[in-house]
Amino acid sequence: MKLHEHKFFIGISLIFVISLFCIATISASPITVTAKPSAVNDLPYVDYTVTWKNHCPLCGHDETLTFNPKSTYEGELTCSYCDADYCAVTGKDKYGKGPRSRLLLFKYQNYSNNGT
Fold first, then answer.
1. pTM greater than the 0.85 cutoff
2. Are 33 and 75 in contact, with CB atoms under 8 Å apart?
């Protein structure tokens, strides 16, 4: 194989790999939730509306976050694949020994105190 053909092959291969990465990166649709903070933080204890990328950083799966399947008072996001729980406001993993990871923020919208 000639040198310029080898460089062309490497270039095409890189474009293919990068495009696969981009497709995987944008495939997770966002999930919007309204909840109170439930992880250690300095935020007021009021309702916040936040939109997260629907991707679990601990197991790497997309479209597996569900809102409050365990019926917590504050509301939380849980991965239906690995059962990791996340604060729906801060995105922090709620592991007992401290957060191991954090959700990727898609968009912060607002908060309100709803009379509390």
1. no
2. yes
